[in-house]
Design goal:
The chain is of the alpha+beta class. 24% of the residues lie in helices and 25% in strands. The protein has two domains: 34 residues; 357 residues, Deoxyribonuclease I, Chain A. The strands form two sheets. The chain has a seven-stranded mixed sheet, with no helix packed on it. It has a seven-stranded mixed sheet with strand order 2-5-6-4-3-14-13. α3 links the parallel β3 and β4.
Length: 403
């Protein structure tokens, strides 16, 4: 009996063995492809400086004064001005960076980085908050875009927030030649002044996503850096919040708002791509480029404004006498036909807003337009490290132009 049964079922065992081995190999390949960090956590990454940055970078002795050359005369007030830029650069791809546009040649990204650097030089940027920067990714030719921008702008101090790391991202799914491939990407801060600390908090991914999708999905993040600007320490929060899951984004906003509020205010700036429109926005859904996106019930920006910081966007955009053309001047997305504001700079009351504008001259090198804000440092009130949070009724702090 055993001799007749064994041959009869040998093929079954062979098929089962092949199935198990194949399954193990597939799981191993997927895990290898996903690679990187798979759970939310807080990391520290030492800030960097580049001695090869061009002559636009100051020496340590230069950091006691601001190098902004927008005026012909230098005053004490000018020395306390800082130009802040926030920009989701979409890894230099432009419209279609989410995967709908197909693969582009390395020369395209080289031109984009050159154009971005030219823009940052033209506005005399002092501190730049960047999102969607590639550090070493197949999709953009394995170029360290942060190092390249640092060299080309003369902003020699930088800090990275790696939020997407994988050995291979198989997206877009077809054809395979369009896969993003090896991925090292995230946010960053560039500075004319020394960066003394850099802490990155990776935020939870949307629980609604399938587990296999989240294996390859990017983390949204909060990057906290401290900049030694002359005799002042400026605390920077650079954030990139969830784009496609409203509940996840609102929870991220609560975490970020509470974190900022718990710290002593001092000189604090919060900026980045928050993927949400302001509460006073006239249009909150039905966008031509993304008809499915709906911000009607989105509380993200209202929550972030509770952190004790002032939105540098002029308050008049939502007040009496509001006109749609005023609102349109602050649209940052999409760059080819802006119809909503997704990018922000909020500042503590210890800053005075000199000007705030969207850099439309940056063109279409990214799918976002940069936001350029000039701030003046007010004297801090001793013995406290900051002034008490003020309401949005304080016009001088909320975008009213001051001399």
């Amino acid at each position: 009996m055993p001799s007749t049964v064994r041959p009869r079922y040998a093929w079954v065992r062979a098929v089962m063995t092949l199935f198990v081995v194949t399954a193990i190999l597939c799981v191993g390949i997927v895990l290898w492809m996903a690679g990187g960090i798979q759970s939310p956590k807080t990391l520290t990454d030492p800030p960097r400086s580049s001695s090869s940055a061009n002559a636009g970078a100051p020496t340590a002795a230069d950091t006691n004064t601001n190098t902004n050359t927008n005026t012909n005369t230098s005053t004490d007030a000018d020395a306390e001005r800082r130009t802040i830029v926030t920009w989701n650069i979409a890894w230099g791809y432009g419209w279609g960076s989410e995967g709908s546009g197909g693969r582009l040649e390395p020369e395209h990204f080289a031109r984009s980085i050159e154009a971005m650097a030219a823009f940052l030089r033209s506005v005399n940027a002092d501190i730049v908050l960047l999102q969607e920067v590639d550090f070493d990714s197949t999709r953009s030719g394995h170029v360290d875009q942060l190092a390249s921008l640092s060299e080309k702008t003369g902003l020699m101090y930088s800090a990275r927030a790696v939020s997407w790391q994988a050995n291979w991202v198989p997206f877009p799914y077809w054809p395979p030649s369009n896969h993003f491939g090896a991925m090292s990407s995230g946010g960053a801060v560039l500075s004319r002044y020394p960066i003394t600390s850099n802490e990155v908090t990776l935020l939870p991914k949307p629980a609604k996503n399938p587990f296999w999708y989240n294996l390859f999905y990017l983390f949204r993040y909060v990057q906290r850096v401290e900049v030694s600007s002359g005799q002042h320490t400026i605390r920077i929060y650079n954030a990139h919040l969830e784009a496609f899951d409203l509940g996840n984004r609102e929870r991220q906003a609560v975490v970020l708002s509470e974190r900022v509020r718990k710290e002593s205010m001092g000189y604090t700036i919060l900026g980045g791509d928050f993927n949400s429109v302001p509460p006073e926005a006239t249009v909150r859904s039905g966008y031509p480029d993304e008809p499915e996106t709906n911000h009607e019930a989105d509380t993200t920006i209202a929550t972030l404004r509770q952190a004790g910081l002032n939105d540098t966007m002029p308050e008049t955009l939502g007040g009496p006498g509001h006109h749609p053309s005023d609102e349109e001047a602050y649209f940052t997305f999409p760059s080819h036909q802006p119809n909503r504001k997704l990018d922000y700079v909020l500042a503590s009351p210890s800053f005075e807003v000199v000007s705030a504008r969207v850099g439309r001259e940056a063109g279409k090198v990214s799918d976002h337009l940069p936001l350029v804000v000039e701030l003046r440092l007010r004297p801090l009130t001793p013995p406290h490290t900051g002034t008490p949070p003020q309401s949005r009724g304080d016009a001088a702090s909320h975008g009213t132009r001051v001399p």
